[in-house]
Design goal:
Strand order of the largest sheet: 3-4-5-9-8-7-6
Helix content: 10-25%
Bound molecules: biotin
Low-confidence stretches: none
Largest sheet: 7 strands, mixed
Structural class: alpha+beta
Number of helices: 5
């Protein structure tokens, strides 16, 4: 257990608490995906807060079946076991919670003013700096555990990106003016923030996450193109619902909500 002091940085104040997740990190060199490693641990009964971190992933994965570029020693490729005992329908809130926690840690440790693009991307300088993938496992129709996968492009240079990702992905090194990121310090801050926000969420519900998410969002107030299983449409993003859906105002003035899907900022 570790006492984490209150900190004040760019308005990111919070009270101190007893952090315990930073003591349960499995560090590996090269794996196919930390998601799979964390699942194995969860299946064997690993406690909540167990984290797997790898230097490299050969089969890192993102949302929508995409690959996640995970070169050796350049990023934070991490998966965290959670056992929230929530109805399955509420798990998208955990993605938003993870976005808030990671964005807070990034701003605090590096000073890079990352922002959150709904639902789970962190952007800096208009490009993606971090992705979050939440995978849930069910047992007898109920949520058994969740694996929160977090990929932070810490020290990648432009050359570290394959051609197709240049212009889309960036890193804390690039956005921070060439100053290398201390990955250990950042990973610890990420886990501390995750633990802090998660405990508060279990205690108090979604409202504090919603408030911080809206403050850190780069989505709200923007015209967006929305891609859902029902099709593509354009609208203005205006807020989050109390459940964590993105609220959209159509040209007609009508308010619609989406719980999952993807958006593009226009
Ligand atoms: C996305 O933006 O599509 C989500 C990307 C999530 C990437 C992380 S890296 C650690 C963990 N292991 C994986 O294979 N994926 C997640």
């Amino acid at each position: 257990m570790k006492e984490v002091n209150a900190h004040i940085s760019g308005g990111l104040k919070r009270e101190s608490f007893e952090a315990s997740w930073t003591g349960r990190i499995e560090h590996m060199d090269t794996v196919e995906s930390t998601q799979e490693e964390a699942k194995l641990l969860a299946e064997r009964g690993a406690p909540e807060g167990t984290a797997v971190m790898a230097e490299a992933q050969t089969g890192g994965r993102g949302r929508m079946g995409r690959k996640w570029h995970s070169p050796h020693g350049k990023g934070i490729w991490m998966s965290l076991v959670l056992r929230p005992g929530l109805p399955l329908a509420l798990t998208p809130q955990l993605t938003l919670l993870a976005g808030v926690a990671v964005c807070t840690a990034i701003r605090e440790v590096t000073g890079v003013q990352a922002g959150i693009k709904w639902p789970n991307d962190l952007l800096a300088g208009g490009r993606k700096i971090c992705g979050i993938l939440l995978e849930s496992s069910l047992r007898e129709g109920r949520l058994h555990y969740c694996i929160a996968g977090i990929g932070i492009a810490a020290n990648l240079t432009e050359e570290d990106y394959p051609e197709e990702l240049r212009g889309i992905g960036t890193s804390l090194l690039i956005e921070g003016g060439g100053i290398p990121v201390d990955r250990t310090r950042l990973a610890q801050a990420v886990l501390e923030e995750l633990e802090y926000w998660y405990r508060q969420y279990i205690r108090e519900g979604f409202a504090p996450v919603k408030e911080r998410w809206e403050a850190m969002s780069v989505t709200l107030g923007r015209q967006v193109s929305v891609n859902t299983p029902q099709g593509r449409s354009e609208a203005t993003a205006v807020g989050l619902s109390d459940q964590g859906e993105l609220l959209l105002r159509k040209d007609t003035g009508e308010i619609a909500s989406v719980l999952s899907g993807e958006i593009e900022l226009i």
